[in-house]
Amino acid sequence: MKHLDEYRDLELVKPLVEELQRAVTKPLRVMEVCGSHTMAIFRNGLRTVLPQGMELVSGPGCPVCVTSAPHMDAFIGMADRPGVRVAIFGDLFRVPGSNGSLANASSRGAKIDIVYSPMDALEIAKQHPDQLMVFLGVGFETTTPGIAATIMAAKVQNVKNFVVFSTQKTMPPPLIALLDDPELKIDGLLCPGHVSSIIGAGAYEPLAKKYGLACVVAGFETADLVKGLIMLARQVATGDIKVENVYPRVVSWEGNPRAQKMVDEIFEPADMEWRGLGVIPGSGLKIRDKYSDFDAEVRLDIKLPPSQEAKGCMCGQILKGINTPKDCPLFAKRCTPASPIGPCMVSSEGTCAAYHKYGQDI
Amino acid sequence: MTEKTILLDHGSGGLASQELIGNLFLKYLDNPTLHSLEDSAVIDNQPGRLAFTTDSYVVDPIFFPGGDIGKLAVHGTINDLAMRGAKPICLSLGLILEEGLSLDELERVIISIAEACKEAGVPIVCGDTKVVPKGKGDKIFINTSGIGVVADGINISSKNAKAGDAVILSGTLGDHGITIMTRRAGISMEGDLKSDTRALHRLVAKLLAEMPEAIRTMRDPTRGGVATSLNEIAAASELAIELKDEDLPVRPTVRAACELLGLEPLYLANEGKCLVVVQGDMAAKALEIMRSTPEGAEAVIIGTMTQGKAGRVVINTPVGGSRVVTPLHGEPLPRIC
C-alpha cells in the first residue's frame, strides 16, 4: 500500500525505538485518545518495548465503546419495530444494551444492514420505500461529515424514508471533562490522527495551555506512533509544553474547513451521554430543526430511558485511564469478546478487547 | 420468455426431480457409481484406514472472483480429507435449493462442481436434492461428505507437533475471506483480489511420499483463519507457537482491503492454503517440495513450535515487541473508522 510500508520499514523504526529509550528521562503517563491508536500499539507490541518510566493509558476514543446503554437500548428497540430497518457500522452489531444486542434483535427477525458508509444506507432506503431506514450515527468527527453529506443527499433526492439517529460525538469536550477529574493523572496526549484531520491540530491548543498537557498528533503506523511518543517524552523532559503534529501528511493546523462547514449545516452541539463518563455538556451533535425530517428521534418520538450500567463493570474508569482492564473483576471472566458486558470489550478497538486479544500476560 | 427457475416440485421426488437429475446432475457429474441412482453408493474395498468428513457451504454471493459455492464445496471437503493425510476417494453432494433459484445459476454451479471434481480426480458418487419455499433458504446450500484412504504409516494429527518443529504456510493469507467481504460490501478494488479456492491433496501426497515421518500436523485454515488454526494446533499439541510478523505473507491488495475495512488477514478464511508442521531439520526440504507444486509455490516458513506456555500463539513484531494471537471470537466485523 503506497505511503504505508515506508512507515513500517524496519530500518526506519528500529532507530526510532532506540531514540524513544533515550528520550524518556522523566517518568510520564501518556493517554492515547483514539481506539485505532490503542489497537496499533498492541499490534506492534509497542507496550512490551516501552522505556522504563513511560506508561500508556487508553482514553475515550472508541466510538462504539462510549455509546451509552440507553442509546443501545433505543437502537435495539428501534430495530425491533415493524416497518423499520436499521443500518449500522459493523462493530455496533454485538454491543450490549441492558438486555441483549442488535445481534439478538437480528436473530428475532429485525432487519439490520451492516454498511461501510451512510451513503450505502441511503441506497438501501431507496430500494425499500415501504420501510423506514434508520442509520445509527455512532462516531466522532471522522464519520460525521459523511453522515451530514448523506442527509444533504437524502434531502436533494427527496428520500422520505431515510432518517439518522445521531449519537455523534465531538472530541475536545470529553478530554476537558477528563482533565477536570482530579483522579486522572496524565502528562501527555497522543492525539487522534483521523479526528484531527477534520478538527485540526489547533483544537488541542487549549489543553496544552490550560492544563499544561503535552499534545502530539500522530498517525497509525509504527514509525508514526514511536515518533509521537518521542515528541511527548521530549516535551515532558524539557518542560516545553505545546501542540505538535507528526502526522502532517494528513493533519493540518486548521483541519478540513469544508467538512466542518458541512457538519455545521446539519448538526448543532448538544449534551451527550457517554458510556462510563455520563452526560458531558456540548459533547454531542444533534440534527438541526430545519432537518428534523431526517432526525430519527423526532420522526419516531424516541425517549431515552435512564442509564443503568452493568454491575461491577469498570468501563468508565478504564475509559478515563484511571484503571486498566486487569483491575476489573469482570475482565476475562464474565466479560469476554465472545460474551461482552462492557462496551470496551465489544469493538475490536475497545481497550478491554485489545487487552484480551493481545495483552494477556504480556 | 420467463427465466426457468427451481420450483417446489423439483424437490418432490417425483417426475420433476427425476428431470433435474437426468437433465442436469447426470449430464455433468456422471460416472458409473452415480449413474446407478441407487439408494447408496457402494465403494470398492480400499487398502488402508478410511477417513470420513463432511462440510456444508452457505456462502453469499454464490459466485465470486476466483470461484463459486460449487468449487468451494468440492475443494473444502477434499482438503479436509487431505489434512489427515488421506487420499480422497469420493464425495457425496447434498443440495438444498431455494424455490425461485434460476436454473441457469444452478447449472453454472453444477458445471463448476463437475470441473472441480474432474480436475481433482475425485468423483461425486451419491447425492440428494431438496427444495425449500422461497425465503426459507438463500439460493443454494451445499453439503459434501467425503471418503478418503490413509496409507499405513501415515499419522497426521494436531496433537503430533513437537518443540522445534517448523510451521509452514502454503501461500498468502486471507485471499478468500477478503474477496467475499469486499464483494458483500460492494467495494471493488483494483488488482488481484480473488478467492484462493483449490484442492490441496496433490501437494499433500507429494509431501507424504517424500517424508512420511517428518510431517506431524496439517490444517487448512478456513473460517477463523490462520490465527484460529494455529491456536488449535498449539492447544492440541500442548506447545506454544512463535511467529515473526514480517514473515506472514499477505498480498498487497489483500492488505490494502484489510486496512480499509479494519480487518486482520490472520483471521480471514482461506480455501486453498494449508499449515504444515514439519520436523525442524526437514523444514527446508519440505518447503522445497511445496514450492515445486502450483498449490504451494508461495509457501513460507512462518514460525516455530516452542516449549512456551501451552496453547499460546505469539507474534514477534518488527519493533522487538511481541503480542498474543488469540482465536477468532465471532464473525470478523468491519470497524467504524
From TrEMBL, chain A:
Gene Ontology terms describing biological process: protein maturation
Pfam families membership: HypD (PF01924)
Annotated organism of origin: Desulfopila aestuarii DSM 18488
MF terms (GO), sorted A to Z: 4 iron, 4 sulfur cluster binding; carbon monoxide binding; iron ion binding
InterPro entries according to UniProt: Hyd_form_HypD, HypD_1, HypD_2_sf
Protein name: Hydrogenase maturation protein HypD
Annotated keywords: Iron, Metal-binding
Source superkingdom: Bacteria
Family affiliation: Belongs to the HypD family.
UniProtKB/TrEMBL annotation, chain B:
Origin superkingdom: Bacteria
Classification via InterPro entries: HypE, PurM-like_C_dom, PurM-like_C_sf, PurM-like_N, PurM-like_N_sf
Domain PurM-like N-terminal intervals: 38-150
Sequence ranges assigned to domain PurM-like C-terminal in this UniProt record: 162-315
Pfam families given in the database record: AIRS, AIRS_C
GO biological process: protein maturation
Family statement drawn from the similarity comment of this UniProt entry: Belongs to the HypE family.
Name of the protein in question: Hydrogenase maturation protein, carbamoyl dehydratase HypE
Native organism taxonomy: Bacteria, Pseudomonadati, Thermodesulfobacteriota, Desulfobulbia, Desulfobulbales
